[in-house]
Amino acid sequence: MKTRDKILLASLTLFNDEGEGNVTTVDIANELDISPGNLYYHFHGKEQIILELYAGFELEMVDILEAPLEQSLDAQDAWFYLYIVFEQIFKHRYLYHNLNDILQRYPDIDRRFGRLLDLKRRAASAVAEELVSAGVMTASERQLADLCDSVVLTLTYWLNYTGLRKDHAPNALSIHRGVFQLMSLVAPYLTDDFRYFYDECSALFDVLSSAD
User: For labeling, which of 73, 127, 145, 165 is most exposed (least CB within 10 Å)?
Assistant: First the structure.
């Protein structure tokens, strides 16, 4: 692995574990056992590291969010799709844990994140409309709009909420909780024939939680 890639990987790990605001370029250099000058050769400050990490996150996230815009998802696919979205967010949780502060300090990320929010909303709408068309859900146009807003809100601030609760659950369980929270938002709109799907998700979550 090239030094530049090692710096990005170490930075991502430190940001996730310690919080982006608590990590300096010296900390990153020490983690890699390289000199600050060597790090500076590759990145002229932490801002460049943040911007490159975000660019990678954005590229992967856009690819994920555009999937339901390009092909339909059934109920089972939608369940797995939520895991993929949450796993990507969790992989870059430093961003979501400290979202408002990072957006204020990095205007370029602020502008780009706004577009990402719009794409989240479009993806949520595409999935919801497909489930309604398939008879999995029943909801009015207004209910669907409100539901999609709630889904995007949860995706964006779920990790902030868990941080405020001092929730230190293992990574996998944190992702399960996020997915189950979204399923709970969808549950009231499931048709009778598909109510079992939420019940099975609830039972699975109970098993996973008890194993923690």
Answer: 165
